């Protein structure tokens, strides 16, 4: 030690051994944490990292974040003075489409240098979590209700109607899997066996963003005892004159039938569509396995149709739903054609159908034609 007296001032210079400084700083200079991982599933934001030195105890960790265009760093809520190597910052209100940066440091009596994480955009990094699944059993079918795992999600707020789902189903007794792709939030699986336990799992996808989610937990349900009345089968729609003709097959005679329709686009919307099905006029309480209704019942579009049978005391489950596209099933007026005969052939010129007023019908899709001909002295076509 050396003491120098300079007037009324005393300057004391003290030499201290290096091990004393080391002890005062907690024994070691702290190293920055490493290998920070950002996991985002739905609206859950999780950070994980590795300690640089496991031998140093009582160390805590803190994060800062910085938004695009900001110069200053802000303390990250939920990730301050953490004693473990994981924290949750889901409570932070972020624009999920805006890029952010993170940094972390270790803290004890002193602090480590900051370790910066590569900037990222939450939406691009986010994964789709397992959806919620609710099942209802019929005798030969299972109705599946699916909804995204996070209700009122911020991450998927603009994509709620864009989700599609796929599922894997198997008999609990066999384990042989069947995959069903591109279904919507309410789906019905037909042609199952009565009184049989089936298991399934579902995952969601946002194909527009190239995102595939993870499977839900496995759900199992047992189909019911076989219903006394089977549902109608083999439903078909055809066109006769200005009417639609709907036909189906049924096992028993002396039955009453009703037919309902639904806008096909509603299948994309989450929720229960049970009360959105509507009765088709002239197809309620019909006694035959067909009904006829005018084309003007439906505007241009795509619909779903279903049929149910009743004998007065018992009612069947609804049939399989069929898709009905008014443009495909539209009534086509007869084409205009001219014919010219040669020595060994006919040349036929076909024009677009014409409406009243001799104006051509404008078609939204190409037409193909069928030609039937026969000798006038014969009925062989």
From TrEMBL:
Q: Which GO terms describe its molecular function?
A: cytokine binding; type I interferon receptor activity
Q: Does the keyword Nucleotide-binding apply?
A: no
Q: Where is the signal peptide?
A: 1-26
* UniProt keyword annotation of Signal present: yes
Please indicate which superkingdom the organism of origin belongs to: Eukaryota
What range(s) does the Interferon/interleukin receptor domain occupy? 127-224
Keyword field: Cell membrane, Disulfide bond, Endosome, Glycoprotein, Lipoprotein, Lysosome, Membrane, Palmitate, Phosphoprotein, Receptor, Repeat, Signal, Transmembrane, Transmembrane helix, Ubl conjugation
Ranges for the Fibronectin type-III domain? Answer: 12-113
Quote a single Gene Ontology cellular component term.
lysosome
* Protein topology in the membrane: Single-pass type I membrane protein
Pfam families per record: Interfer-bind, Tissue_fac
Q: Where in the cell is it found?
A: Cell membrane; Late endosome; Lysosome
Main localisation: membrane
Gene3D superfamilies, per this entry?
A: Immunoglobulins (2.60.40.10)
Q: Cite the InterPro entries for this sequence.
A: FN3_dom, FN3_sf, Ig-like_fold, Interferon/interleukin_rcp_dom, Type-II_Cytokine-TF_Rcpt
Cite a single GO BP annotation: response to virus
Q: What family, per the record?
A: Belongs to the type II cytokine receptor family.
* Name of this chain's protein: Interferon alpha/beta receptor 1
UniProt organism field: Homo sapiens
């Amino acid at each position: 030690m050396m003491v120098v007296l300079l007037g009324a001032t005393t300057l004391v210079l003290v030499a201290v051994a290096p091990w004393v400084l080391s002890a005062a700083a907690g024994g070691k200079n702290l190293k920055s944490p490493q290998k920070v991982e950002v996991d985002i599933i739905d609206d859950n934001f999780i950070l994980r990292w590795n300690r640089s030195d496991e031998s140093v105890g009582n160390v805590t960790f803190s994060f800062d974040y910085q938004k695009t265009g900001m110069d200053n760093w802000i303390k990250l809520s939920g990730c301050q003075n953490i004693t473990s190597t994981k924290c949750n910052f889901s409570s932070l209100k972020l624009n999920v489409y805006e890029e952010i940066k993170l940094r972390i440091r270790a803290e004890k009596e002193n602090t480590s240098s900051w370790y910066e994480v590569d900037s990222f955009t939450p939406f691009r990094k986010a994964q789709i979590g397992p959806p919620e699944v609710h099942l209802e059993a019929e005798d030969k079918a299972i109705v599946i209700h699916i909804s995204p795992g996070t209700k009122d999600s911020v991450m998927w707020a603009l994509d709620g109607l864009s989700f599609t789902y796929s599922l894997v189903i198997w008999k609990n007794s066999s384990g042989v899997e069947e995959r069903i792709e591109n279904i919507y939030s309410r789906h019905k699986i037909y042609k199952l066996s009565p009184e049989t336990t089936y298991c399934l799992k579902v995952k969601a996808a946002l194909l527009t963003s190239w995102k595939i989610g993870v499977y839900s937990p496995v759900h199992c349900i047992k189909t019911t005892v076989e219903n006394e009345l089977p549902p109608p089968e083999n439903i078909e729609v055809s066109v006769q004159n200005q009417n639609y003709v709907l036909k189906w097959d049924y096992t028993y005679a002396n039955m009453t039938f009703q037919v309902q329709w639904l806008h096909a686009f509603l299948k994309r919307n989450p929720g229960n569509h049970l009360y959105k099905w509507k009765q088709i006029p002239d197809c309620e309480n019909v006694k035959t396995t067909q009904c006829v209704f005018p084309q003007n019942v439906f505007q241009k579009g795509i619909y779903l149709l279903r049929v149910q049978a009743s004998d007065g005391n018992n009612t069947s489950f609804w049939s399989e739903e069929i898709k009905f596209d008014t443009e495909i099933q539209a009534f086509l007026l007869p084409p205009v054609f001219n014919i010219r005969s040669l020595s060994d052939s006919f040349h036929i010129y076909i024009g677009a159908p014409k409406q009243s007023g001799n104006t051509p019908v404008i078609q939204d899709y190409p037409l193909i034609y069928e030609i039937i001909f026969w000798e006038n002295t014969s009925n062989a076509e």
